[in-house]
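SEQUENCE-TO-STRUCTURE ENTRY
===========================
Question of interest: how does this chain fold, as expressed in backbone structure tokens?
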Amino acid sequence: MEAVELLMSGFEYAWRVRPMSGEQFAGDACWIVEHGSRLQATLVDVLGHGPQAAELAEKVHGWLKRRPLVEPGALLRDMHRQFKGSRGMVAASALLDDDSLICSAVGNIVIRIAGQHARQHVNQDGVIGYIMAEPKDARYPFAARDVLIMHSDGLSSRFEPELFPGMDERSCGDIAEALMQRYARSTDDASCVVVKRQACS
């Protein structure tokens, strides 16, 4: 599954979701929504894999589609309440505006910024729907040549943005495809989201 689009908000994005080897559907879900000059990207990785994980991922995706833009920590708290008692999931969400982003993540899912303001977000421990630490929002600068990358643990932790020279010149779709081809594990569902701001002409 993939999607690439140029938005009126001035962002380009792409995502990829791929089930583990031998499975037809993945237990990962992505949702991206824009409102005015803001964009929110959310990535969810349901625990386990196979039909039951995929079914829960589809429910989470449907729930996200009905949600307005909200600060990421609040979104993850609401997700925890909504899916309490489920098999559980980890998730990350980022809300981007004119020159910065706010993000929050629970569990072993990754949020990274590559470029001028390179950094990796520090997640809260836990499993959404089971037990978790209170999600915390963090705000980071996000300039025109920065790249936001979120990925599940289905991608190898060996990945470093510095391994992609000229990343800011590549399309989000190219970056997402390269990540999946080089670093996705065949033994797990894998997913990634890539977002860039469109440079002013």
